[in-house]
Amino acid sequence: MGFSDIVRQTIGQVSNPANIIRSVDVPKATLILGTSAIGAFVGTKIGGPLGTTVGTLVGSHVGHLALGRMESLKVTVNGFGAVEVVYRYA
User: Fold this and answer.
1) What number of other Cβ atoms are within 10 A of residue 60's Cβ?
2) Which residues pair with 86 in a beta bridge?
3) What's the rounded Cα separation, in Å, for the pair 36 and 63?
4) What are the start-end ranges of the H helices in the chain?
5) Averaged pLDDT in 10-residue chunks for the chain of 90 residues
6) What torsion, rounded to 10 degrees, do the Cα atoms 8, 23, 20, 78 define?
7) Is residue 19 exposed (0-12), middle (13-18) or buried (19+ Cβ within 10 Å)?
8) Whole-model pTM above 0.85?
9) Helix (H, G, I), strand (E, B), or coil: what is residue 17?
10) Are 89 and 69 in contact (CB under 8 A)?
11) Antiparallel, parallel or unpaired: β 82-89 and 70-77
């Protein structure tokens, strides 16, 4: 497996007035369940209104990815509200 299999992408910006910084690693079992499970998992782990917004954004973004081939997914929200995903294909 090479470095080309790892993708890092900023997928959007959310309102983050409290400057909350969170990072969530999504388990392989959740990746297999699909986009709504991924969105719900991320939203729950981040929590609150920020979690709801980020979960919806991530769920809609990963819908176009080949979920069966995805081996790992990490979602990060920085203090300015930028949402970044890092994923790796199997």
Assistant:
1) 13
2) 8, 74
3) 9
4) 28-33, 35-46, 48-62
5) 76 95 93 89 95 93 75 94 91
6) -20
7) exposed
8) yes
9) coil
10) yes
11) antiparallel
